[in-house]
Amino acid sequence: MITKEQMHEAFPEISQDNVEKYYDALVSAMEEFEIDTPGRIAAFLAQVAHESGNFRAVHENLNYKAEGLTKIFHKYFPDMDTANEYARQPEKIANRVYSSRMGNGDEASGDGWRYCGRGLIQLTGKDNYSACGAELEVDLHENPEYLETPEGAARSAAWFWWSRDLNVLADEKDIKAITKKINGGYIGLEDREKHYNHALSVLGE
What we know:
58% of the residues lie in helices and 0% in strands. The chain has 12 helices and no strands. Helix 1 (4-10) packs across helix 12 (189-202). The longest helix has 17 residues, at 16-32. The radius of gyration is 17 Å and the shape is globular.
């Protein structure tokens, strides 16, 4: 398992405070879900570091301006008039973007905001909250804020990793395929690969 000193060296962009904050929770979560070889550890930590902005964010930021909504969520905000109705209103944005999918109810249900991205791998959607909560033995419907604690943020990320068989892809050193499973595309692939390769070198691989 990675030491605290190795984690500082492998991920210098993560503040010392955040390494201290998350280290024990990450080690415990990685042990729980068999992220237990240098290759698996490097791949997992590279992905969570990217997804969380180097452990700075464990709650999805949806505070978009109208212009951002039309670019990033064009399907839901096809014109500026619609976008302006929602701009800078994270709860309202989440309820529209995440409505009627991933197990969520319609926009009026509030599920989009209730089950927005949380944790180090931004767990999103009622179905994911249900499945993760069942495995972790935590009621994430009643206590979604658990995912924002160091323990919950780390365990939910490790659960997501395990549930998508990403240890197998890590063993194959297929960072591109891991990124697709997590991101749905390849956004930030270069940064993820940079983190991974540096972590591997620190861990002696």
